[in-house]
Specification:
Structural class: mainly alpha
Largest sheet: none
Number of helices: 7
Helix content: over 70%
Shape: elongated
Number of strands: 0
Radius of gyration: 28 Å
Strand content: under 5%
Length: 153
């Protein structure tokens, strides 16, 4: 409240404690000032961890920790800047692109040890065991793929 008064955002000489709109306005202004403080703090935190990540003598573990902390502070900064997209930003921030790609791969092809995955590996092994294809065989394969794509697409 002191910051709101010193910044001139609220004139407490005009504040009516019995008016609900005065209280609502006070809370909105205080929330916005707190949000601005958080944005400055998250930005400084993010820059600090980026500086740590750029250090050349970091171990693999400390580099990963600094990278994760920088990503977390960037996520917090973006959530405070765009509160209407906070849930969406939070979901993206908690999952790295590599983790996302791995989970998508497992959804599509399965995991090692699962029948679907083992079948795929066996099919690939038998396909590559044939060796190089002749030009005629390549053309036949392309025709099959095009026909399959047109049938599904």
């Amino acid at each position: 409240m002191l910051r709101a008064a010193t910044l001139g955002a609220i004139d407490f000489s005009q504040f009516d404690p019995w008016d609900s709109w005065s209280w609502q306005r006070l809370h909105l202004i205080i929330d916005e000032l707190a949000n601005q403080n958080n944005q400055v703090a998250y930005g400084a935190h993010h820059r600090h961890h980026l500086a740590l990540v750029s250090h050349s003598r970091l171990s693999e573990e400390s580099w990963e920790n600094s990278k994760a902390a920088a990503n977390e502070s960037l996520t917090n900064l973006l959530q405070s800047l765009y509160p209407w997209r906070a849930k969406e930003i939070g979901e993206v921030g908690t999952k790295s692109s590599r983790d996302h790609a791995v989970s998508q791969f497992h959804e599509i092809f399965g995991k090692p040890g699962e029948p679907q995955y083992d079948q795929m590996v066996a099919e690939l092994a038998s396909y590559f065991a044939k060796g190089k294809l002749s030009q005629h065989e390549k053309e036949l394969e392309r025709q099959k793929r095009r026909a399959k794509q047109q049938a599904t697409g």
